């Protein structure tokens, strides 16, 4: 489905506003990699209490961007902004979030299509209580897929590195899979509808080291085709898999703010913020 389907025909592209302070290399900005998602002065409040405020962030296409920081700093809140999942939590959203230069919070946006093109995988595997096949086919069916369903299910399972393990048991209940397999099934379910971006909220937090390693390998391979944004408490994981990293902290008012962004190696080897240095070195958080 083309991008114009996201908005009403009357929608006009908004004027550019002041850019954020995050560090993005010139080759990422001007070369083959383009900005697929951009948040400008994002704020999220529940009632009168802000969870995050004044967050500026850019996500480069076909890269892995990690969002790290201590518990309660608003990482997951920020992530949910990117496909409007916060709409379900009665949150007030401020600022602009641009997906391929379109503001996804503008009037007339097709939210269902946004969530198809910007998929999400959660911390705990959440397969549906049905067969492995039906789990992967679910999104295709509700989106009116007209192609070869069996071929697309196989494609998604292969992309999620799960096909060889389940090809002879597609009719088995998804709950018969191990935890790591269930998480890869959830990834396959998201990939089946061919999103441009995949959001991952602590995707290995509930998995053992072996299953976690498989997910990390999968994430690294998937960036060849899609853009990945991952929230993780695991600093080592962020260092291993991400191309860019964004560090969030809470201020004196307990509001989450983005304190540093940039290429992962630069942030980890030469952090510009003392609070970033303390966090990644394990001195707090």
Structure description:
- This protein is α/β, with parallel strands linked by helices and 285 residues long.
- It has a domain at 19-123 and 194-280: Rossmann fold (3-Layer(aba) Sandwich).
- The protein is built from eleven helices and ten strands.
- The strands form two sheets. It has a six-stranded mixed β-sheet with strand order 6-7-8-3-9-10, sandwiched between helices. Strands 2-1-4-5 form a four-stranded antiparallel β-sheet, with helices on one face.
- α7 (179-191) runs parallel beside α8.
Q: Can you give keywords for this protein?
A:
single chain; Rossmann fold; 6-stranded mixed beta sheet; 10 strands; 24% strand; disordered N terminus
Describe the structure concisely for a colleague.
With 285 residues, this protein is α/β, with parallel strands linked by helices. It has eleven helices and ten strands.
Structural class: alpha/beta
CATH level 3 topology of the domain at 19-123 and 194-280: Rossmann fold
Question: Can you give the mean pLDDT?
Answer: 87
Please name the CATH architecture of the domain at 19-123 and 194-280.
3-Layer(aba) Sandwich
CATH class of the domain at 19-123 and 194-280: Alpha Beta
CATH superfamily of the domain at 19-123 and 194-280: P-loop containing nucleotide triphosphate hydrolases
Helix content: 25-40%
Q: DSSP strand (E) fraction? A: 15-25%
Low-confidence stretches: 1-33
Helices and strands, in N-to-C order? HEEEHEEHEHHHHEHEHEEHH
| Assembly context of the chains | single chain
Most strands sheet: 6 strands, mixed
């Amino acid at each position: 489905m083309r991008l114009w389907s996201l908005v009403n025909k009357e929608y006009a592209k908004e004027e550019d506003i002041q850019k954020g302070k995050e560090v993005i290399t010139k080759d990422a900005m001007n070369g083959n990699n383009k900005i697929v998602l951009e948040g400008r002065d994002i704020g999220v409040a529940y009632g009168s209490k802000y969870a995050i405020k004044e967050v500026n962030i850019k996500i480069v296409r076909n890269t892995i961007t990690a969002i790290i920081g201590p518990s309660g700093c608003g990482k997951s809140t920020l992530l949910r902004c990117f496909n409007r999942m916060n709409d379900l939590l009665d949150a007030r959203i401020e600022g602009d979030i641009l997906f391929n230069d379109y503001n996804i919070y503008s009037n007339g946006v097709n939210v269902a299509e946004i969530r198809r093109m910007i998929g999400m995988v959660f911390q705990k595997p959440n397969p549906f209580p049905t067969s492995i096949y039906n789990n992967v086919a679910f999104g295709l069916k509700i989106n009116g897929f007209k192609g070869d369903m069996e071929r697309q299910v196989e494609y998604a399972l292969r992309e999620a590195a799960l096909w060889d393990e389940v090809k002879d048991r597609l009719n088995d209940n998804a709950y018969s899979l191990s935890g790591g397999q269930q998480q890869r099934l959830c990834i396959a379910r998201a990939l089946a509808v061919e999103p441009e971006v995949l959001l991952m909220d602590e995707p290995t937090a509930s998995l053992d080291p072996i299953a976690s390693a498989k997910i990390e390998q999968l994430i690294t391979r998937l960036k060849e085709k899609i853009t990945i944004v991952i929230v993780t408490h695991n600093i080592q994981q962020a260092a291993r898999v991400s191309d860019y990293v964004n560090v969030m902290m809470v201020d004196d008012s307990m509001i989450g703010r983005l304190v540093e962004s940039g290429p992962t190696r630069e942030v980890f080897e030469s952090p510009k913020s003392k609070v970033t240095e303390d966090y990644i070195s394990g001195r707090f958080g």
